[in-house]
Structures
1.
Amino acid sequence: MNAKPHIAVVGAGIVGICSAYFLNKSGFQVTLIDKNDPGTITSYGHASTFADYACVPVNSPDLIKEIPSMLFRSDSPLTVDFFYAIKNLDWAFKFIKNCTTKQVNYISGALGNLLNSASVSYDEIFSEVDVSKYIKNEEALYLYQNKYEFLKAKTSNKIREKNGVKIKILSKNEILDLEPNLASIFYNGQLFIGSRHTNNPAAISKKIFETFVNNGGRFLKNNIADIKSKENLVTLIYGNNEHNFDKVIICAGSWSNILTKKIGDDFPLDTERGYHVMFNNYDLINRPVGWSQSGFYLTQLEEGLRAAGTVEIAGLNKPENKKRTKMIESEARKLLPQLKEVKSTWLGFRPTLPDSLPVIGPSKKYKNIIYGFGHHHIGWTLGAVTGKIINSICNDRVPNINIEPFSPSRFN
Ligand SMILES: Cc1cc2nc3c(=O)[nH]c(=O)nc-3n(C[C@H](O)[C@H](O)[C@H](O)COP(=O)(O)OP(=O)(O)OC[C@H]3O[C@@H](n4cnc5c(N)ncnc54)[C@H](O)[C@@H]3O)c2cc1C
């Protein structure tokens, strides 16, 4: 009898954990490898929303007009390290090329298609992995600071609705009925109907990971130093030794391109850095509350109230920028004046391609190396559906979602 094909999954963020889970379930021998503990990097510190509604990319015709004023505002959702940007102008040009109305519609359609299968894919995992105490069904609320921002959002809302997202506009008073602790500093807002969130992303990752291990999956804590393809095998170098696998999946988030370059696949992968500030509060809000003014969500977690979001373009190596966490803290306090002391702050690295679409599929050069990275603002939401697609590819089945827009060959 032939041995089961041996697949290595590199990167144990939510995308790698879900991929390993589905591959193991469908009968492969699976080794998940990460230099850190599973689920402890970007997939730990995010805003914790299952954002099935978030099909509109950051790219937009309006953004180009607004960037100059955003860069000079101290409470802006976006900040750019000038020297880093100058060194990476090629990425910026590619990003701008994807800001036309036509491209934004294309990207939203592709993301919307993926997002429409996000919840059902998680539910397939959750039918075996009991995480019910960590899933909350109070729908996410998004607040607009003024009438202008609300009217401007109509374009994005139209795109969302076209992609099946259900939105309910609420007046200020209706919002205060739902969330009475909010300070009345906003104009109005909207609910994303049917959306859910978690109060403990780390616990969900851990539970899925533990089920994978209990079902026979293997985890190795190691840094992948190199990757080579030889004949029908893929060789990973870790612990100073070569290890052969039938297939390798690369789900290393923002660090994926360091590995793909080693086999000659170079992607325009950059990072949108984001922050969270954790407050020592436990009962101020019932649902995630997004704040358009500064681009973050307030979410009540088991470990405290988390304000998470904003975008900083400054690469992978610069340390935490305290100005950003101070800004998030002061804006959060304006919305919720009852906030107590800060417990901790965190910097995370969203893996982002300039067209705001992930890379999902086999390497053009080596069909037994498969990619799953670049999920930018919605990687937590897309973990399970990406894992399912990767499992279909490894089983030589055509995924039931059109994955052409996510093709690794699209940048050639
Ligand atoms: C502030 C903020 C708020 C966000 N809010 C949301 C939200 O509300 N909803 C949502 O859906 N998404 C959100 N996101 C996005 C989401 O967090 C990410 O898209 C997602 O976590 C990416 O998951 P990943 O598995 O691709 O990467 P990661 O979680 O970063 O995992 C990659 C793993 O690869 C490992 N690795 C890298 N290189 C190597 C190597 N050479 N050898 C071994 N291991 C390696 C790393 O150690 C890491 O564990 C947010 C992000 C931020 C920063």
2.
Amino acid sequence: MAAVTAGGVTELAIRDSLPAGFLDCPARELAALLGGPTLIELAGRREPPLFVSVIQHGNETTGLEAVQQVLRARLGADGSGGGLPRSLMLFVGNVAAAAQGLRRLDGQPDYNRAWPGTVDHAGTPEAAMMAQVHARIVARDCFAAIDLHNNTGLNPPYGVVCSDDADTLHLAAMFARTAIRFRGIAGTQTASLAGRLPAIAAECSQPGVAANAALAASFVNGMLALAAFPERPPRPDALAMYHTMGVVRVREEVSFAFGDGAAALRLDPALDHLNFRELEAGARFGASDHAAPLSMQDEAGREVAGDYFAVEDGALLLRRAAMPAMLSCDPRIVRQDCLCYLMERVAAGASPLDHAAGAP
Ligand SMILES: [Zn+2]
């Protein structure tokens, strides 16, 4: 069993069977059941294994519920019967944060920024642990890797990929019709595996919603049952792929609020309804007394807000067509993280990487 420190982890536990009680264990009780981050390797009829991770963020519980559903259906309520059509490697991540209902504990690195390639968390015990999991995924030449998450705000389920090979696109299309192609945030599981095997972060919308767990369960179950990926890439209508033009933040010195009031920037209180809608130039985000209340960084780190937003007659407007994602109406999240990402559709057949490189 893994040793636990105040920070939650010193080492990874690896098991070859389900611990008793795992299938009914709520996220908050995983730390008591498992003792720490745990890799559970279950044998199935087909190799290589499917890799699935849950609870990399302690408050994102849909993945755990989904995997519990799949295993209950396949193995019975006590986890001992039946069998899996394919071997499964299940990584149960930040159980210490889950015990508190938090994404991560103070002083802990974000687990999904500590995978190989991490810059911010290099040298930490968590980075060593992720490197160990990564090495086992690569050594067993996993069939695919699925990282189950939730997010805040009104977002539909969507996949995040860091590669555009046919198998990765099939994996994304089997989860949801919408996928986002990031070049990859350093230290994420999906970025660390891209190019080695089909890998996706499956963003399952908000936690605590039964339909989201059912969707994720159906995805994992389908991937366990899949013998091989189809040879041809998915049809263009099977997957709408977007890429990020940049991350949008409210400038630090600008006061803001959702709705009316005295703040310099007054954002539309229903802004999150615009998530994943393709907006025309001129779409209104709110009212501003400040001439340039937002900053926007593209993937190369350039400041591009002036290309995408303008304030005209006190209205904050989009200057060109774009699709926002991860818009949040929680002021705390907007300050700590961002207001939103702006996306655009990647045309069928175009390489998102080339496209990003050619973007203004
Ligand atoms: Zn997450």
